[in-house]
Amino acid sequence: MDDLRLNEELIDYLFAIRTQVHAELKELAREAGLTDTQTDVLWRLSREQEMTARRLADRLQCDASTATSMIDRLEKRGLVRRVPHPTDRRAKVIQLTPEGCTLRDRVIQHTTEHSPFARLDRESRLRLHALLREVVDGTQSTGEPATVKDNHEKEQQ
Length: 157
Known about the structure:
2 strands
């Protein structure tokens, strides 16, 4: 197989995995009365200690106004709250409420239990993790997931 075809097939596999994960989350989102994107917000808020609306918009690849309206809806449901940023008076940090944490935990549990990667043994998942991390951010993995601190430091560079 030539390199062009190999790259095309790798992209095909990534889209197939995305579709599988999305389908699993869609069912959970429907049960919880959330949209797919709101479920995505809960997942993303669980991955970082601090998240501003701007950072969330960047993660979701949407406009800040779209992220703000989504945060508004989640806030009305009692799943998130806005608190003052510890160092920037102009910004607010989006935090999960206890109810939001409970729902986030359901999302994480459901997603990991239905992960397409569960078909692989631990050693294979660690190898795949290292390869994907190298592709995404150009760093070699030690076999341990990146920490929130690692992600934050990477973003500051």
